[in-house]
Amino acid sequence: MLPYAILTLLRDGADHGYRLKQRLDVLLAPIWRVNIGQIYQVLDRLRRKGWVEELPPEAVSERGRERWPVAITTQGLEELERWTASPIRPTRPPGPARNDVLTRLAFGGERCIDRLLCDLVEERAVYAAEHDRVTARCDELGLARSALDSAKRLALESARLEIRAHLEWVDLCLDHLRAEPLGRRGRNGRPRPTATLELRAGPAG
Question: Is the pTM of this model over 0.70?
Answer without folding.
Answer: no
